[in-house]
Amino acid sequence: MKRAELLEINVSKRDLIDGLMTGIDVISAFTEDVTRMTATELAEKIQISRSAARRYLLTLVHRGFAATDGRNFWLTPKVLSLGGAYLDSARLPRAIMPFLQRLTLQLHESTNYAVLVGDDVVYISRVNAPQVLTTGFDPGTRLPAYTSTAGRVLLSALPDAELSAYLDRVNLVAFTHLTVTSKNVLREELMLIRANGYATTENQFEIGFRGISVPLNNRRGQLIGALSVSMLTSSCTLAEAASRCIPALQGTANSLMLWV
């Protein structure tokens, strides 16, 4: 699997807008673990002055992207519109949706399209199964790549040097008692995924959930993401799920190659 290569442009520092770069850092500083911050805390986190941090935060409040109680600041749902702009403007998520819809109709399971961003997997598109209890991840969901079947497919495609660097730096946190936390075991599983061309996971991020995923290549053979099926482990055995879903996922990926 060859990864899609982005055009690299050598940009002079004088062509960069420092304020925009810092503004992105300000928004990115808010995480699942740090949902509220004072100007002082933000300044320490992204290494800017307190007065600058306060001005950036107040600008976000003024534009509706943040709120404050006078001391603490937090992001508002309006920030989601920034990600929505990508989904509205990007061709690829729109092209993939009809294929996911057909795949969900065929398998009666939730389906997803995801990409690797840094050490995380980000879910871009999703179609829910027509069930009372749906499984899968909403668009924009970001997970540690090793906990996700899509993330493992994408990690397995990394060149050996990049994969080794990833394993050296990643901290394998146990989200369940079954999460793989041994780097040697994870490497072995990734090598098996690379050889097989698909991945299956169970109970890695949340107990009771299973994922099955295959790589998605474009017509030039470059890896551009992963297609996945999400389901409850109680719905059937892993062997039954794999025999039913893997051919359907691979067929969908092959069809999509003509469009992306």
Any descriptors?
single chain; 260 residues; alpha+beta; Arc Repressor Mutant, subunit A; Beta-Lactamase; 2 domains; 7-stranded mixed sheet; two-stranded antiparallel sheet; 9 helices
Description:
There is one protein chain. The protein is an alpha+beta fold and 260 residues long. The protein folds into two domains: 2-80, Orthogonal Bundle (Arc Repressor Mutant, subunit A), CATH 1.10.10.10; 90-256, GAF domain (Beta-Lactamase, 2-Layer Sandwich), CATH 3.30.450.40. 42% of the residues lie in helices and 20% in strands. The longest helix is centred in the last third of the chain and has 19 residues, at 238-256. It starts with a strand and ends with a helix. The mean pLDDT is 88.
Judged by helices, strands and strand pairing, the structural class is alpha+beta
Helix fraction, binned, reads 40-55%
Spans of at least 5 consecutive residues whose pLDDT stays below 50 are none
CATH class label of the largest domain: Alpha Beta
Report the portion of residues in β strands.
Answer: 15-25%
- How many individual β-strands? 9
Largest sheet: 7 strands, mixed
User: How many H/I helical runs?
Assistant: 9
Q: Whole-number radius of gyration? A: 20 Å
CATH superfamily of the largest domain: GAF domain
Mean pLDDT: 88
Q: What is the terminal-to-terminal distance?
A: 15 Å
Count of discrete structural domains: 2
Morphology: globular
CATH architecture of the largest domain: 2-Layer Sandwich
CATH topology of the largest domain: Beta-Lactamase
Question: What's the order of the H and E elements?
Answer: EHHHEEHHEEEHHHEEEH
